[in-house]
Request: fold
Amino acid sequence: MTLTQLQYALAVYAHQHFGKAAEACHVTQPTLSMQIQKLEEELGIVLFSREKHPVRATEAGEPILIQAQRVLDESGRIGELVQEMKGDLKGTFRLGVIPTLAPQMIYRLAPKLREHLPDVRFRIREMQTEQIIEAIRSRELDAALLATPLNERLIQEEPLFYEPFMAFVPEEHRLAKEAFVLHSELVLDDLLLLDEGHCFRNSVLKLCGERPDIGSEGKGTIEIQTGNFDSLVRLSKQGHGMTLLPYLTAADLPKDDQKLLKPLDHPIPTREISLVFHRSNFRQRMIEMIARSVRESVPARLLEKKHDPIEPL
Reply:
């Protein structure tokens, strides 16, 4: 089995046509077909159903081809490792960011990444925490920004900043005239929450200290499943309840909406944002520069740990 054979097989998998795959690989079709046939003989598995058009992977061939893509991806990273050992930071870096952080973080971070790592191509994906954990384990991501601690055995965490929660309290709300919001005043029936799967929702539920299912005895008439803080803010302003926002989201609100923000009582609920990566990740200098870029992208007051963070999971 050779990397070239895997490359040819993946070209057929992508183009679903032997002729187009050969053209993309700059070889003749007989050469490509012969190498794939040798690969199949060595594996003892038929990778493609040749009688079908377009050409499809067989049931047995599909997982083999998916793994072949991972093998080629990892082989290409050998050159990146050599470059990094020489102090030459180049190549592609795959970074995940949780949805409750991505809109406020990516535009802040991009100029710093360009400044500190100008020759690196970043592929940034917005993903939920569970998806990120699996992608780090399978090496589909090099690193990710998310709320910690995760307490995952194979994943290393480097805390970068600490983001306090803010209460968004609309006019005419029962807490509208209060200077700050007590923890005991947070009631789930009165809170607009993100949908399940978002770690920020889990943190709010832990903060409230109540059962995770929202009761039906409250005044709310809208049940919403969204991962968008903007939707929660709009509904809140319409009188459907209050909501909690992370600091960077609150800081990006329009000036008129910021007047409706209130601090929470001490200890201020906070989430820890970390750069996480597989413990065997070899791109340590790259990771150090990304961590530096993140720290330089947020207000200095967020760099200091003032309160114990709420665990996200």
About this structure: Strands lie at 48-49, 56-57, 91-97, 120-126, 143-148, 155-168, 191-192, 242-246, 261-263, 270-278. The first strand starts at residue 48 and ends at 49. The CA atoms of residues 182 and 266 lie 8 Å apart.
